[in-house]
């Protein structure tokens, strides 16, 4: 038999028909093909993203870990992001700003959400049992100005509203990596962890964040990133935090630590 044409040629010739078939198979649009299978309703959890990429947005491994553990826990997930410009764009291959580029936080976050995302302005406590913030420098650059202003930072008004609304409603809040600074700034007297308070030869390269958290009036609790002591639960405020990539360690330790955070968030929902 004659050889098959390359996949690119097959897509080119069948592209329009294929797209039509996909749309018919997914009445909700192509994005619906990326959603998880329907299941018995568990906790309804909002996940707030801050872009796509560790140095200027959401840390992708952390977001993925959060979503995997939520799926395993039977949660029903909706992702959100603020519809605002990024502070700047980083060329991740060089670790340097891409001066000529500008990007939108919501649009970039949609890459992680596989298109299924909404503006943070639409997030309400009535629709969700808990909210989780993955880390990445986007939390300190796009959700707040912590990366520039430290303890004098300002928090995006929608982020502040969400944190205060969930806290007032007594619904749990999960944060990992550097995102606990958001709770430290907004929720007076909150207890959080970003890991250790000393760099320890480079194992905890962002240890100075713990000092800023104390200056914000929050309590910092020293925690490991490993599965033995991976998350801190502030039972009074229902805030659960874990260090994640604040520590230089193996990826599976970070994945397990985020799993402990998610597990405790789901436990606090009572569902």
From TrEMBL:
Q: What are the GO cellular component annotations?
A: mitochondrion
Matching InterPro entries: Class_I_gatase-like
Protein keywords = Mitochondrion, Transit peptide
What's the protein name? GAL3A protein
Record carries keyword tRNA processing: no
Annotated compartments? Mitochondrion
Keyword field contains Ribosomal protein: no
Lineage: superkingdom: Eukaryota
Organism, scientific name:
Oxylabes madagascariensis (white-throated Oxylabes)
